Fold this protein.
Amino acid sequence: MGRPGRAMSVAALASLPVLPLGWFVGLQAHPPWVAAAYLGYFLAVIAVPGTMFWRRLTGGSGWFAVDAVLGTTFGLACEVLLYPLGRWLDIPLIALVMPALALGIFLAVPGRPQSTKPTPWWSVAGVMVVAGVVAAWFVRVGSRVIPLDGPAALRPNSDSPFQLSLAAELTHHFPPQVPYVAGEPLTYHWMAYNHIASAHWITGIELDVLTQRVVPFAFLLLTTLAAAAVGMILTGRAVAAPIAAGLTVLAGDLGPWGWTVTNTLYHDSPLSMGQMISPTQAFSTVMMLPLIAVTAQLLRRPPGQTRRQVAGLFVVAGLLISVLSISKATALPVYGAGLAAAWIYLTIKARRLNLRALVLGVTVAATYAFNFFVVLRGASHGMEYKPAGTYRTMLDGMLRGIDPSVQPGHTVLLIVAAAVAAGWLMPAVGVLLIKRRLPRDPMVVMLLAGLVGAVAAASLLYHYSQAQVFFARTAFVYGVLLAAWGLASLERRQYLVVGPALAIGVGAIYMGRAQTKTLIRDCQDTGCLERIFSRPLIAALILTAAGVIIFGLSIRRRSRTGRTWAVIAVSALIGLTVSPTVVSLRQFAFPPQTAYDSIAPGGIEAARFIRRQSGPDDLIATNIHCHAPTGPRCHTGSFWIPGYAERRVLVEGWSYTAKANDVHSSTEASYGPFWDKEKLKVNDEAFTAPTREVLDRLRTQYGVRWLLADDRVNPAPEELEKLAELRFQSGTVRVYQLYPPRVGAGSTPIS
């Protein structure tokens, strides 16, 4: 490497400390050993072995920085595939063999000589700046979304305890069951929890800290870095890295109305509520990015590709597809739609079947079938075909509090649908800047088809909890890559107009949002609704068009080519999507909390007492079934006991199960009855009318060893303390241990 290359490398390395510094700053609320332990484990067990696997199997990209990032994500995929085997064999530390496996492959498989291209210092530094923004956002917002201690920790919504309970289940059992309804198979995607469980075993960090702090932060950073790496692979230009990273963090949806940031419309960037409270969504995004990179290397057929390298690429793609299929139900269909379009395009272009795309397609079909029939067991979880149901639900959410006599017309629904769909599709305008490359590159077709297919799925399918919107969330990174690809295709002098054009879009959407003078609940007729929904959108579009025209005319005449006008227009349209991210820095700093303690005071301490005093197969019975301890209706979304106790519960809540979800409304799913009335009857009698026979049946027939009672639900009867041993009491919670059944009582005693 010559001196210029060496100088660039030194300058690039000088910016790398931003990553570890940002890591420790982002986790400053926790003891330093937490950040250090996870970072050390991540580097030694995942990043270094993963990079070695990646470079040996794929042959590398030519940029070491790109291979290091994508290799790290591949190492994560290898870990989550390996962990279930270790858990099944009772070797939960099995991921520690990955460094040895990597060394073995490194020695056994000879490397392919290749030239290493230096990554410009400004490209690395730009990505590090974006990583610093992610760390700052996490300190300001992300770390406050889900409180871990203090009174606020007792008031989460149902999602975060649900995620924690699944992490606890995978920590101690495989195959997994529903931890809060023991005996029910877990028909849900659990790959992300394999990583959390493995990290817990190796580092000793508490599961709640990992699930709700450390791992989400790691996934945010990985998504940013991997988007930058894939941007470089797609474009072959280093300038794509900071552009892709920046758009990943700053871009979002259209959000033309002020009330949509925290109400109903879904801001889809990694800096959003969805990424923080859904490890499965965040993890699937991390897995999707290296798969896109491998797909590009396979479908493009770069010169000099050997058969061994092609075989290695197929191995990597197969592993990533397998992981993705059990990571998120919406992920693989989006990839499959894009792949199918690319296959058709390549087949028509070459006038013969494209075997590489066909092999990938068969792999997708096989793994998706395995996921649907084996993991999900054919459960639909309430997903149905209902065109425009997504937008009707969004509109209904925005109209809460309005006079029931004011009915929105079809025009209002059309405006909402157009704004949301346009926001999801907006990044695709980047294709206009790479149009001249379209006849030679199937990846443009793949990304565009995946994005359009995801928006179509979100528009045509419906789930009572809006789960279909995750199709659009999954495709967010497709749009980012298209926009980054377009902007990275510009000539150097054209970047002088990109910044001002982006600012035009940002300013236009802010000024458009300011047009909402009337509150929705003040509207007294349909015409009022049509005005307050249409004015902000129309104003933003008019301001954008005017800004583009004025700016285009103001630059020097010799710069006003047709392509320059396209650059200005595309940049301004992309700028329209930045607004929600900026606003979220203020809105999401105040996390949503319930008005009551959904976790019983003293409950976390009681659950952890059971964890210390019991084995992983011990079973708990509880009188807690509802998210709210009292009230006229029981929302059955209570899941916190198995999360903190790391032990299964006979019956706690039963929402978010396949049987509860197989309905057509959120009311039925959240407030419906439990399907095994006899089991629930025996369970509840232990806390309302306990007898020796009831407790013996709980222990012998169902295997219950512990009782956790919340006095807020009903005061514990005096008889219970005579029939079971009171082991712990804190707040409103009491913990009892069941005595062994009496010999000769008609049951076989269980020790």
Observations:
- The beta strands are 384-385, 461-462, 619-622, 648-649, 704-710, 724-730, 733-738.
